[in-house]
Amino acid sequence: MSKPIQPMYSGPIWKRMTFFALPIFFGNLFQQLYSTVDSLIVGNYLGSSALAAVTSSGSLIFLLIGFLSGIASGAGVVIARYFGAEDIQGMRRAIHTTVAAGLVAGVVMTGVGMFASPYILAWMGTPASVIPESTTYLSIYFSGSVGLIMYNVFVGILQAVGDSRHPLYYLIASSVINLGLDVLFIGVFHTGVGGAAVATVISQVASACFCFIQLTKTKEVYRLRVKEIHFHSVELKQIIRIGLPSGVQNSIIAFANLVVQSNINSFGEMAMAGCGAYNIAEGFGFLPITSFTMALTTFISQNLGANQLERAKKGARFGVVTTVALAEVIGLVIFFFAPQIISAFDSDPGVIQYGVAKAHVSTLFFCLLAFTHAMAAIFRGAGKSLVPMFVMLAFWCIVRVSFLVIMIPLTHSIQVVYWVYPLTWFLSSTALLIYYKKANWLPQEAA
Predict the structure, then answer these.
(1) pTM here?
(2) Predicted local distance difference test score (pLDDT) of residue 1
(3) Which of 61, 147, 333, 341 is surrounded by the fewest CB atoms within 10 Å?
(4) Highest mean pLDDT among 180-184, 191-195, 375-379
(5) What pLDDT is stored for residue 148 in this prediction?
């Protein structure tokens, strides 16, 4: 028999949050291996141009997928709130509504992603030498949008009810599949970047299937029944009310990152490959922080559902301190080992120089990035997802883009691109801290 799920509205706060976050961390670690294995194999087998094509696609992928992921996170908050309140019927309606929405979104995203990718790449100023391979990679990648989105939906459901272990198991399996197929397609069959994309799609579909089987076979109250998959208006409105700001927030961040990427593209393939390699390293380094913030959202949601207000406050403080401390330690490690990390992806001295330069600016300020994400997780769990959305719009989009538009023509320096991140992290952290201290962010207290 599987180990029973421990609700997060009882027991030691540090234990519940930490042991919930650990499987999420290892799951995210293996998920990150998708893009990393692609990049390592592509960079070493196919060269810097192919590496630039794969790594520079990340911002565009997040632009199109991030919106729907934000909606899914809103669904998780609604499900967790029902779970904490022990409203089984409400929880079941929310689960089946979420699955229905995910299926529709997956079909739409397939068409939009495959159609829009070439146009957005051109708008980003992607070098002509990189566009053909980038277009191939993205077209194949988005052909598997249903699998990617449904995996995120299924994992969101499991995590909302406190199960972070099964998604870990399934991601380990799918990561092994991805690794084997990458070696087979690129190393043996020499299929180029298209083979890397096919391997990723197959492994993502596999992980979604594993989660689907778990949800339909479980004996728990959150069991998924195919015949019950349809929209429930009340729960759909709640999901949209909480999830839409999170989706918009993700899109805002992604749009700003596209602008940043377009500025990096203007410095050539070496800059694209070097910054892309650093971004992968940063993604790995930030996994513990992402895992804790996801646990923090679930913790806040379940405790507010159970009307445990003081426990929610204590958990919020613990989550913030832990994520900030973790982030700074990780940032220092990447700072000192940046040359070795970047060279693992591409040994070209120009690529290493660009990647290390970016690392030496960004990593020392990881604490600010972690603080922003932790605050956003708290407010999202409390149903206040509009707050981080407006903060991100103001600082991570308007300020970031305006800064680049003004400074790049004046300086013609890629250092401006590097420094825009710490600047906007500081501004968003300050704004969210003021709101946390001054506003009444617990909805029950405000009632």
Answers:
(1) 0.75
(2) 42
(3) 333
(4) 375-379
(5) 86
